[in-house]
Amino acid sequence: MEKKNEKREYHKNWINKNPEYMATWRGANGERMKKTNKAYYQKHKEKILETFATPITCECGKTMRRNNYFRHLRSISHQAFEKRKLDSNA
Question: What is residue 64's three-state secondary structure?
Fold first, then answer.
C-alpha cells in the first residue's frame, strides 16, 4: 500500500513539473482519451449510476443523492448552516 502511495505521489509531482508536456500529450491523444473514457463508462454504467444514486446525508441534516452533494455545498441553506456553525464556535 505504501509503495502504491509513493508511486501516486511521484506521478503527481512529475505532472506538476511537466505541464507543457501534459498539454501537448492531451492535444495529441484527446480523441483516444474520449474513446477510452466512453468505453469505460459504457462497461461500468450500472455501477456508476448506482453510486451516484446512493443517498447521503450532509452534516447540515439535508439528504440528497451523491451526485448533487457538491452543488448542495454551494447552496444558500448549506452556507447558512456553515455560518451558524462558525458563529457558535467563535
Answer: strand
